[in-house]
Prior knowledge:
Blueprint: E1 9-10, E2 30-36, H1 44-55, E3 60-63, H2 76-85, E4 89-92, H3 106-120, E5 126-127, H4 140-150, E6 155-157, E7 161-162, H5 172-185, E8 189-194, H6 198-213, E9 217-218, H7 221-229, H8 233-241
Parallel strand pairs: 1-6, 2-3, 2-8, 2-9, 3-4, 5-6, 7-8
Helix pairs in contact: 1-6, 3-4, 5-6
Amino acid sequence: MLKGCCLPLLMLLKDQEHAADDGLVVSLQTVSLTFDDSPDASGHSDKVLDALKAAGVKASFFVNGNNFCDASQAPCKATLARITAEGHTIAHHTMNHRRAGDIQGKAQLANEFSSMNSLVGQRMTMLRMPFGEPFQAGGQAEVARVASVTSTFGVHVGWTFDGQDYNCGDNAACVTSGYSPFFNSGKTGLVLLHSVHGGTASALPAMLQLAKNKGYTFVSPEYYIQQIYGMNSAAVTAAFAACPKNGTAPAGK
């Protein structure tokens, strides 16, 4: 349940040994593949979608409207539509991929999300701030400032593991080296990836096969949200909105 009107944050398993404290069932090897920054004009996100389709795997895409391309225009508009059409989860990553500290006004921050809902054509109820800021490592005051806006739009989804594919460019071997340790470890949680890089797109088929060989079940972040809160992200967002004072204590680890 939504305890004490806490902020809807899904930080998840920063310390794997305390997974059960987050309310998660860890007997199953589950992984949620989350891709930031889509779409892109170079076609890498579409290659990621091709690999997922070939492997029969669903993932989550935290999308921008104006980052690696203008998502209101072809060909990127078609990529956004394809994400939903092929059964993947689509979520907020803000319109312009600006750092939280560079967006001072609450109305300006809210527009980053409301404009994305309009662009995608649906009310998304999961989000990830660019660079995870300030939720991954921010101060309490900044978390409270940003969360006062983001919590009205959805559950902020962090990550368990970052293999830093953004440092690999088109180097698939670099991506494989960065992410194989997670799948070989048998750990559970959210994996941060970026669909806009050639190396990620090229390395993904083998990564998916490794995960399958290791017995992983692919899940949406909603799977973990349901375990922690007892409801999906839309219900969590609605429950938080109904809180008399909109609580300020982070719910995740």
